[in-house]
Amino acid sequence: MMDPIWASTQLFWTFLVVLFRIGGLMVTAPVFGSPSVPVPVKLGFSTAFALALTPTALGRVGTPPGDWLLLVGILLGETLVGMLIGYLVSLFFSAVQMAGAFLDMQVGYGIYQLMNPFAPAPASLLAQFHTLLLMVVYLQVNAHHWLLAALAESFQAVPVGGVALDAARLQPLLSTVIAQVFLLALRIAAPATAVLIVVDAALAIVSRAVPQMPVFFVGAPAKIAMGLITLAIVLPLVANVFVNTLPLAAQEVLNLLRALTKP
Fold it and tell me: Treating both helix axes as pointing N-terminal to C-terminal, what angle do 143-157 and 125-140 enclose, rounded to 10 degrees?
């Protein structure tokens, strides 16, 4: 029969490891890591999720080390794993902000800077709009559930104390993800950008044909109107592109976990 004190110690150690890994995720993950979410709320979510995942991870977490320095090192490594998982997923949201900022410059909203509640830095109007829209889509398709499930599976992929930061293995992964983020930003911004290029060409022709027309004063409202109309038309397509990208993000998280595992 297992010693009750030993069983309680092992249970608390498992809870602590899960809590630190989830805490790292809460710092960088979309929605959970938002600056608009108060710290007590993040701590509450972290504790609740840790309590829920502790029974799942109980058989995958080793015994607590006797050395305090080793214990602190393990907990810091667990926090790093959670932060990297959340950061990798948040990179795909950066594509949304990038596309929105590019469209702002094309439409004429680039000079308007708003405080983005989901980012620590000011964001342009359409960048904030795209971020809020796809944040709703992210929650609607329960992608945050998938993120927590991936965190639970990470204890099997990356054992406790088995984190290995190898730049040679992480660099190709990050390069691939950044390339995919740029491609996603282009796919989101492409429809409205194509329409606005046609509008610019039409305004250039009008300015040559009718030099007396104040093209600047006529063109600015025309570009804003056409940009917003096009944006309203392609919003379902943008949401669909983002949803189709989520499996790719899931695959990259798996690749990250493999890269973090000691060979």
Answer: 70
For residue 113, give the amino acid letter.
Answer: Q
The CA distance from 32 to 25, in Å, is: 8
- 3-state SS class at 163: strand
Q: Where are the domains of the chain?
A: 4-260
Instruction: Please choose, from the candidates 133, 131, 127, 119, the residue with its C-alpha nearest in 3D space to the C-alpha of residue 101.
Output: 127
146, with CB counted inside 10 A (0-12, 13-18, 19+), is middle
Residue 163 one-letter amino acid: V
pLDDT in tens, 179-210: 888 888 888 888 888 888 888 888 888 878 77
All residues at 6 or more sequence positions from 164 whose CB lies less than 8 Å from its CB, including other chains: 260, 261, 262, 263
Regarding pTM above 0.85, the answer is no
Instruction: Determine contact, residues 100/127, Cβ cutoff 8 Å.
Output: yes
C-alpha to C-alpha distance for 174 and 172, rounded to whole angstroms = 6
